[in-house]
Design brief:
There is one protein chain. It is globular and about 75 Å long. Helices cover 77% and strands 0% of the residues. The chain has one domain (40-426). It has 432 residues and is an all-alpha fold. The protein has helices at residues 3-17, 22-37, 42-53, 60-73, 76-88, 94-110, 113-128, 136-147, 157-166, 170-176, 178-199, 212-235, 240-258, 264-297, 300-310, 315-329, 335-352, 357-371, 379-388, 392-415, 418-426.
């Protein structure tokens, strides 16, 4: 390891320990690398601008963020919630089951775990806490676990970013997340059923059939968004990036024109929040381009590939090692750092071993979602605590069955790649 790389790592870790925004830490460490190497500092601007402005796929990220914020500001979450009550509300632990189904539907619109937790998740928690049978920890744990569906079921912001760094097809990645996403939802509902049966949790009150048409009508337009997005992508009408623009327009049309749930003040607040969220992601991306330049110049990815090759690992052993690495790093690092810094370093080894990039991408994204729900980082835990005041400790006590379930599904996806690859291959995508 060269002195320049040691300085880079020390500067980045120091920035993170001092609670400097991660994007600034990454840029500062990249600049320190160039100073030690005696290279032109203009390379910072060159790498950042080339990375940001040469990527058409990257446009999808702020548009999906805007679409999710619009839906949360309008009445979309409440309409989906009422629709799902008809379908699964009569199951034991009905309110928790409703939350999982709402997350499945909402994930087909937003592509963001945090948007899922802060929008429909908050609606569900408020409803559950009105019932003494639902503890605070259980309500928070259900919402945190189901929010991980957002980036697995398409569309998905992390998959768009993974496609940017890996060159994998966005369409194939989206399809690769469909079966794992629905398996996650089914297993979550099974876990809830077991817990609810043991604790004798209530079923939701039966909704008279005369009210069904009105509820279905209220939920029909929001439910049309996943159909429009995925139908448009796979029929070739628009690209995944253009689909993000369609999602943003669709959400704005529903919330602002059809439901009239947006005032100008609310709309401006959504624009500002979306701008801040997009700026954070863009700053982290800018820093990652600088770091990736440094690592590539030092031959770190190639050295890692040679190291993996020298170990004579099979594809399965390599993937298990990657899972272990990301599960440990997920305890301490943000998803964006894992996705933008560590994934590019692993890609040469991945290609050398012949691991399918779509399979690898979906497995990596699920790893990162697991990292969102366990401490000490656990971003979703902190989001729910900030919004509801539910202590993280209570959510963790109630959340371990969901965590075990996700780990078992991750293992199954690793051992049986066709869980991810069957649908993309059936739809004609060359995934290898």
């Amino acid at each position: 390891m060269t002195l320049a790389i040691i300085v880079l790592v020390c500067v980045m870790v120091s920035g993170m320990l001092l609670r400097m925004p991660i994007g600034f830490s990454m840029l500062a460490s990249g600049t320190a690398y160039l100073l030690v190497k005696g290279q032109d500092l203009g390379l910072v601007a060159e790498q950042v601008c080339n990375g940001l402005y040469n990527s058409y796929v990257l446009l999808a990220v702020p548009l999906f963020i805007f679409a999710a914020n619009i839906m949360n500001a309008g009445t979309v979450s409440e309409r989906i919630f009422d629709f799902c009550r008809i379908l699964v509300g009569r199951m034991r632990g009905g309110m928790a089951q409703v939350n999982v189904l709402v997350s499945v539907i909402f994930s087909g619109m937003s592509g963001s775990a945090i948007a899922d937790a802060a929008g429909p998740g908050l609606v569900t928690i408020r409803q559950m806490l009105k019932r003494p049978e639902y503890s605070r920890g259980f309500a928070g744990a259900v919402v945190v676990a189901s929010a991980t569906l957002g980036p697995i079921i398409p569309p998905s912001i992390p998959m768009v970013i993974y496609a940017l760094v890996s060159g994998a097809s966005v369409g194939a990645l989206f399809l690769g997340g469909v079966i794992p996403g629905f398996l996650m939802a089914a297993l979550m509902m099974l876990v809830i059923h077991v817990i609810a049966t043991r604790r004798n949790m209530p079923r939701e009150a039966k909704i008279p059939m005369l009210e069904w048409p009105a509820i279905f009508f209220r939920g029909a337009l929001p439910l049309s968004m996943p159909i429009v997005l995925l139908g448009g992508i796979y029929s070739g009408i628009f690209t995944p990036t253009e689909a993000a623009a369609v999602a943003a327009f669709h959400a704005l049309l529903l919330a602002g024109v059809v439901y009239r749930a947006l005032t100008w003040r609310t709309f401006w607040a959504v624009v500002m929040e979306s701008t801040r969220g997009s700026a954070v992601v863009t700053l982290i991306l800018a820093g990652s381009f600088m770091l990736n330049y440094a690592f590539t110049a030092e031959g770190v990815p190639q050295a890692m590939a040679l190291w993996v090759d020298s170990m004579h690992l099979s594809q399965l052993k390599f993937l298990l090692l990657v899972n272990l690495m990301f599960l440990v790093l997920g305890c301490f690092l943000d998803v964006s750092v894992l996705l933008l810094v560590f994934v590019p370093m692993l890609l040469p080894a991945t290609k050398l071993l012949g691991v399918d990039l779509v399979h690898f991408g979906v497995v990596v994204v699920l790893n990162m979602m697991i990292g969102l729900i366990h401490p000490p980082f656990g971003m979703l835990l902190f989001v729910i605590k900030a919004l509801t005041g539910i202590p993280i400790g209570e959510m963790m006590v109630e959340g371990w069955p969901f965590l075990i379930m996700l780990l078992l599904l991750l293992l199954a996806m690793t051992v049986f790649p066709q869980i991810v690859l069957w649908l993309p291959q059936t739809m004609g995508y060359v995934t290898h």
